[in-house]
Amino acid sequence: MNSQESSTQLRGLILEELTELTLHELCRACAVQDERIVELVEEGVITPAGNAPEHWRFTGTHLSHARVALRLQRDLGVNLAGAALALQLLEQIDSLQTQLNARDDATT
What we know:
Layout: H1 3-6, H2 23-30, H3 34-43, H4 60-76, H5 80-107
């Protein structure tokens, strides 16, 4: 890697946090009935903005988490509590990986 490559910074906008989906839109994106998303919310797998299902708003991150949780349930038979735990652990792994990458970048 040359010196120009090592000093290049990437800039971007994370659209997942800016996307807003209604309950109906999230259900369509996940190909599930409303009840499945309500279960995810009740278990704490995802936490939408809004105080009632008709006012809930979900981000792209919620969409991603819902899809992972539903896939864990469908493919591996994991219950909702297990799916919530798996998502927390995946987030921790991602955070630790980001910290390691930052530390590696700082020492290079």
